[in-house]
Design a protein that fits this description.
6-stranded parallel beta sheet, 12 helices, 340 residues, globular, TIM Barrel, 3-stranded mixed beta sheet, alpha/beta
Length: 340
């Protein structure tokens, strides 16, 4: 495990970006998020560029193709896998260029990369017969192992290109559906069963351990399984604060009690009717720590500020504004600003 850990008291992005211009996006992210920029995802480019399609560029010996309903495990690499690899290479070229221009090469400045988590991936990828990979224990294991190996190789490639340490974010937006058994199947009688939490935990733990650099697990869905996330081995847990309910308070408190920092989604991913100031954006986080009985300095010492989720659905202007707002809010937390 690298000694470089996830920083706190600063801001970063979640991953996706609304345009299809990799170079422009990389330049913006490196400029607006000077302390923890990230490799952008540009899902608007189509197949191979969305969260699941990006995995086609990472999986080792498990190529993906498309079916009438989504992505499917294939026998050999085809157009989808080749497209995903080509798009990822372009994104890396763009980030490397922006990194060089910003004078970051060879520094200890970390950068973050994102990948879909193993359970969300298995819930969306089909096997040859059309069933979700989640329904087959062997396929789930193979998919998780392939993903971990691919992410590890991806990290090594980014480190080589940038000469800087790399941190990993695993995105698990489908985790609640996996645990609840609320996913559809090829028929009503063949819907995936609810995956028992111990099995789900073991899968996520195995990938985090294999990646071997600090990992943030991010779940921006409602009712995130906070107990599982806390025990996953991740170094940081990411949630959308605006989606939390009273029922989630104990889980957030247990994460903080365990000494784990939080990536808190506080900046809207689409432009609100009235542009919020940093005090407006801070209110959910301040309310959260107040209700849990933690001192407000926790927001500077244990929190990474992010948008509530990816920015693929935002306009280009708001996306830049969202990153700038996240940075301003992080500075306000770090400076101990008054929020009342």
């Amino acid at each position: 495990m690298t000694e470089k850990s996830f920083p706190v008291g600063i801001a970063t992005g979640v991953g996706s970006w609304p345009t299809d211009d990799a170079r422009e996006a990389a330049t913006i992210v490196v400029g607006e998020l000077p302390q923890l920029p990230h490799l952008v995802e540009l899902p608007g480019r189509g197949l191979g560029a969305d969260m699941i399609g990006r995995a086609a560029a990472l999986l080792v010996d498990l190529p993906l193709d498309t079916s009438t309903t989504g992505y499917r495990v294939a026998q050999r690499p085809g157009p989808v896998t080749r497209t995903a690899r080509d798009l990822l290479a372009r994104d890396l070229d763009a980030l490397e260029e922006a990194w060089e221009v910003a004078g970051r090469r060879g520094t200890d400045q970390p950068v973050k990369v994102q990948a879909v988590g193993p359970l969300t991936l298995a819930s969306q990828v089909e096997l040859f017969g059309g069933h979700r990979a989640l329904t087959d224990h062997g396929a789930l294991r193979d998919l998780a192992e392939s993903l971990a190996e691919g992410v590890r190789a991806h990290v090594a490639e980014v480190e080589r290109r940038l000469g800087s340490p790399v941190l990993v974010q695993l995105d698990e937006p489908g985790l609640r559906e996996v645990l609840d058994g609320s996913l559809s199947g090829v028929s009503i009688l063949q819907a995936p069963r609810a995956l028992p939490e111990p099995e789900a935990l073991a899968v996520v733990q195995s990938v985090i351990e294999a990646i071997d650099v600090p990992v943030l697990v991010h779940c921006c869905a409602a009712a995130p399984p906070l107990d599982l996330l806390r025990r996953s081995g991740a170094e940081m847990i990411g949630v959308d604060v605006t989606a939390l309910t009273v029922a989630d308070l104990d889980g957030i408190g247990e994460i903080l009690e365990a000494g784990l920092p939080l990536a808190l989604g506080l900046v809207p991913t689409t432009p609100p009717e009235r542009a919020p100031g940093w005090r407006d954006l801070a209110r959910p986080a301040v309310t959260l720590v107040d209700r849990l009985g933690f001192p407000r300095r926790t927001l500077a010492e244990r929190v990474l500020v992010t948008p509530t989720c990816g920015l693929a659905g935002a306009g280009a202007d708001w996306s830049r504004r969202a990153l700038r707002s996240a940075s301003e809010l992080a500075r306000a937390f770090a400076d101990g600003a008054e929020f009342d």
